Amino acid sequence: MKNKIGVYICHCGGNISDYVDVEKVRQAVEHDEGVALAKTTMFAWSDANQKQMEQDIHEQGLDGVIVASCSPKLHLVTFRSVTERAGLNKFEYVHANIREQDSWAHSDDKQGATEKAIHLVKAAIAKVRNAKALEPIKVDSSKSVAVIGAGVAGMKAALSLARMDTKVFLIEQDYFAGGRTAQWDELFTSGEKGPDLIKTLYDQINSHPNITLYTGARVWESSGSIGNFTLTVELAPALIDENADPNELRKAIEVCPVSVPDPFNFGLTNRKAIYFNHAGQFPEKTVIDKQACNCCGKCAEVCSAIHLKREPQMITIQAGAVVFANGFDPYTPKPGEYGNGIADNIITLPSFKRLLSLSEKELMYNGKPVRTIAYIYCVGSRQPEGDNKYCSRYCCTAAVHTANTAREKFPGIMNFHFTRGVRTYGKQEILYAEALRNGDVFLQSADDDLPEVIPGKGKTIVRINDILTEQKTIELEADLVVLVTSMVMREHLHTETLFKIPRGRDNFLKEIHPKLRPVETVIDGITIAGTCQGPMNITEAVNSALSAATKAFSYVRKGEIE
User: Fold this and answer.
1) CA separation, residue 332 to residues 161, 238, 269, 341, 392 (Å)
2) What is d(CA 512, CA 405) in angstroms, rounded to the nearest whole number?
3) Rounded Cα gap, residues 106 and 44, in angstroms
4) Into how many domains does the chain fold?
5) Within a 10 A sphere around the Cβ of 101, how many other Cβ atoms?
6) Which domain range does residue 290 map to?
7) Domain for residue 134, yes or no?
8) Hey, which of 293, 427, 455, 544 would disulfide with 273, CB 3.0 to 4.6 Å?
9) Model pTM greater than 0.85?
10) What secondary structure does DSSP assign to 55-114, as a single string?
11) pLDDT tier at 492 (50, 70, 90 boundaries)?
12) Cα–Cα distance between 412 and 560 in angstroms, integer?
């Protein structure tokens, strides 16, 4: 039994000490059985404190150590390393979490939080008092990784892992790989076409022997842990044979009686229940949307390669680690929000980007020519009242870039930007400068005095109290109102709940620490990449994916887990 225990209680720069009386906690435990030393420290993880802990262990002969601080997910390994360097067994260290489990959870009750902290530290003392030196157990690990989501982030993560000689299972719930990037025409700031970028990645994926791509695939069950995850995946039935006659397939599409809004074009166009992929979607094939299909059988009558009664297939995948890259959805404005659903000339920015791609000779919307465009920023983000308090970061740049594209493609377009402050950060500022040179007009509202959209008969007015002209009220009659919508977490997915990955206050998947461990989750062996963890542009998503892949590789590279 340990009788020389050192206890270190961390202020965490105020994250703990603002809500817990750390000195009272120290006094409450310093005379507990076995405690030889009790200290408070501003930052327990700092180099200076780590050296002090090593010195205390040597000079006072400590045989057990406790640090009461933040989550063990952040610094358990740090403090175990300190005890090992000082000559103790790392299992003679015990971590007490008084931040996530106490100060953050009870920030409105300092007295109660202090009492809870005392109990947590006393429990840790009781545990370390009876701790024994142990040796770690090693188990075999599957040297393979499952990547969930085959957009840009997922494909880059898969390629990075495959090039490190790791077997990769790339799982995409849609019938095609490509994600949102396939929907965009010209990308900022490279000028590259979205479909071209996806084709480059897909060709590399398709030719790499270490990558197996599953499309139309959903993870239904998961079990196991780091090193040995077991995923049960449902594969959509292959209702059309690969060697189908192209002429018969065209006839099948023609005779299909079902017409539904095409989600690729955000409902601007319709498609049949049986349809061919858009440019930038891979693999290039014809598929049948089972949710839209009424199984009338007319397509099968003209195409012998169609088999409507085929059932889904269940497969099992063994993976040592999992990378989540399941993307985002554009925010859907509520009915009446900035006139949405009331006027017939209001559209979201993603839909407008598709409209520009589909338009050739003249820009038209709902049969009317478009000359004057009003862009309303921060729709679905930075909400004074609502769930989405965050800034979506990419929206300002996307709006300015789209406005530049519209003016370039259709000379004579007039762009008016109703902003709450333009945030085209970094290299993207050149797009803002270009818009100003083009004559775009930028207006700015206060956070508590947002623009107002006034639908009327045959016209739509946008009104703003512009702080750039000393609160002058300005009204614009717009041919088209574009709502610059935010990124939100995809709500129709259940995959992350299978793995018990927590979400943050912004509803995106939550990393352990945004600076120190930005792609790791509290579930060992699972990393996150791209926009499933928050708004970002393609460049940032790729950086995130490469980081997530590297961390996932570190879990499986040895073929064993300690």
Assistant:
1) 35, 32, 18, 11, 14
2) 39
3) 21
4) 4
5) 15
6) 246-311
7) no
8) 293
9) yes
10) HHHHHHT-SEEEEEES-HHHHHHHHHHHHHHTTS-GGGEEEEE-IIIIITTTTT-HHHHH
11) low
12) 64
